[in-house]
Design goal:
Elements: H1 2-21, E1 30-31, H2 33-40, H3 44-56, E2 60-63, E3 67-70, H4 81-88, H5 93-118, H6 121-136, H7 143-160, H8 164-167, H9 170-182, H10 192-206, H11 210-231
Antiparallel strand pairs: 1-3, 2-3
Helix pairs in contact: 1-3, 2-3, 4-9, 5-7, 5-9, 5-10, 5-11, 6-7, 6-10, 7-9, 10-11
Length: about 230
């Protein structure tokens, strides 16, 4: 019974979340609980559970005698992976991808430099493993398999930085990389130069060369931005 409830409130979320982030419900719009119950043919408990999730993302606020009010976009929790996913699925995808890639450009090179000083032998081995995995899946239109290694590589970089704030951005970066693949904002095969750069970053981290790790990672994020200029202008 519990899983059914989760499924029902998930269905309500899957409709309301993308609609709110796409601007179909402008800030200040009031969503009435009874109307939502009728529209989705669910109980008040299910609607409240969905609203509670939307409130945790700061997409809406719920007030007695007023209803559920859509909040301004500047108040949303834009780092929430689900909010990122919804925004990437909407018409605002190019701007969202650009915003997230700028964030990556600011954080990941610094994280790579720190990782060169702080990464454990195990983390160095993980970076090498995933960089080689990217090489192995970079041809033959294996984008899904490539994505697994790409996400894992960047998660290790952020975690190996030793900065817990950077490490928590792993989910954000994962959503960016996933969104690019799912919405076909990538070439049929990854750019060979970008693949090679990941191998060189892994080597720089292993060799404790912070300057090289930072510089090479900056080249990766610059390349990602250049791809957006072509594929999602």
């Amino acid at each position: 019974m519990e899983s059914q409830g989760q499924g029902l409130h998930g269905r309500v979320l899957a409709a309301l979340g993308p609609a709110i982030t796409a601007g179909e419900y402008p800030p200040g719009t009031v969503l009435r609980t009874d109307e939502l119950e009728q529209r989705f043919d669910v109980s008040r408990t299910v609607v409240r559970e969905a609203v509670r999730v939307l409130e945790s993302m700061h997409l809406v606020e719920s007030r007695r005698r007023v209803g559920v009010t859509v909040r301004p976009a500047e108040e949303w929790n834009v780092f929430d992976p689900q909010v990122i996913r919804w925004r990437l699925a909407g018409a605002d995808r190019p701007r969202q991808l650009r915003s997230l890639t700028v964030l990556r450009s600011a954080v990941e090179p610094v994280a790579a430099g720190l990782a060169a000083a702080l990464a454990t032998p195990g983390q160095c081995a993980e970076l090498t493993e995933h960089a080689l995995g990217m090489v192995a899946t970079s041809r033959g239109q294996q984008l899904d398999a490539y994505l697994v290694h790409d996400i894992a590589f960047h998660r290790v970089i952020l975690r190996a930085s030793g900065n817990e704030m950077f490490a928590r951005l792993g989910d954000v970066v994962a959503e960016v990389l996933t969104g690019r693949t799912e919405h076909q904002v990538m070439f049929t095969d990854p750019d060979p130069a970008a693949v090679t750069l990941h191998v060189r970053v892994a080597e720089a981290v292993r060799c404790r060369d912070a300057a090289a790790a930072e510089r090479l990672t900056r080249e990766i994020t610059a390349g990602a931005m250049a791809e957006l200029d072509v594929l999602a202008p």
